Sequence to fold (395 residues):
Amino acid sequence: MLYKSNRANLILQMYHLRYKRIARYQKNSKIFDFLASLYKDFKLFAKEFVVWSFSSSRIATLKFSKGKDFAVASLYRQRGKLAKRLIHSGMAGIAAFGVMVAPIVAEEFPGGSIDPWSSDSNSQVIPIVDSKLTQTIIAEHGYRDRVVEYEVKPGDTVSAIAEKFGISVDTIRWQNNLPSKDSIKAGQILEILPVSGVAHKVKKGDTVYSIAKKYDVDPQAIVNYPFNVFVDDEDFELAIGQTLIVPDGVKPEEVQWSPVARVRKITPDAGTVVASGSFVWPASGNISQGFVWYHRAIDIANKSAPPVLAADAGKVIVAGWPDNYGYGNRVVIDHGNGMRTLYAHLAKIYVTNGQTVNRGDAIGQMGTTGRSTGIHLHFEVIQNGVHLNPLTVLK
Fold:
């Protein structure tokens, strides 16, 4: 009986093990089927992804090609209209790159510890006047070439000192910051300018033009003053810290103690006033500078650059720019009676050496060649070697 019972248990265990194996096999079979299905789906996804990527790339390439063709066609139609912008952008990029690498490059050379961007601007002033000529003028006529000091004597007044030195009361006032005419006292040291006007100490950013505008004068007046010097005579560059004399300059927003009428004369139309034995006006415009000892001529300015006319009949003895001097293009006419006239800074010359001209004939066009800050005519009248004030002979 016991034997039968053990046998039955053994059979049951065998069936149980077989059932477990079958169950495990079925379970593994389901996992296998799942993995197979997953692999099949992934394979299909990969295939479709490759097809989609290829199609998208092809479409993108076609769009880029069309865009490129459109851009090329547009640029071709523009025919270089955008060239300036591209060039300017390129130059700006190069300049910016240079600013960034300059300190690095500077370190590779001797003295590399110096920051090139922190160094001072050029302070050298190159004299551009003929020192022998100006010294001769000073010696002969007693003109001063610099600011001098004067010690106030008992009984001196500002007006008496001004008259003594031939300058205006306001010139002494501005240079010495005098609060009133009665503010001077014996023993006081005053700075006396060589001419009436203002002494200006050049600051960063100053130009001849900005200084002239500040003090209400023509820039040519500053350039013509023989003792004003410049770093570069071509563009009248100034050195920071130098002192410029501004002839007839007026300090802005100042009430003058001895106001002088500042008249801008308008010349008659050239050739309209013709009187026998007198000169006609050589051009029309504003008289921007008058006759003084260091500027023995008058300047007639006119931005429209009108023709320049012969003031009287005569023979042309100079036509051109023969000496590369500050007059620029010029014409000199010998009138045959001891009188000569000179016309300087011309843009164009209409006559030649040896040619004869009548009064009122066009001899050139007003310009700004030579030592000039703007379009104007520099007109001189010489009688037997002596310069005359043209306003005394022009009618």
About this structure: The mean pLDDT is 78. The helical segments are 2-78, 83-106, 131-141, 158-165, 169-176, 208-214, 219-224.
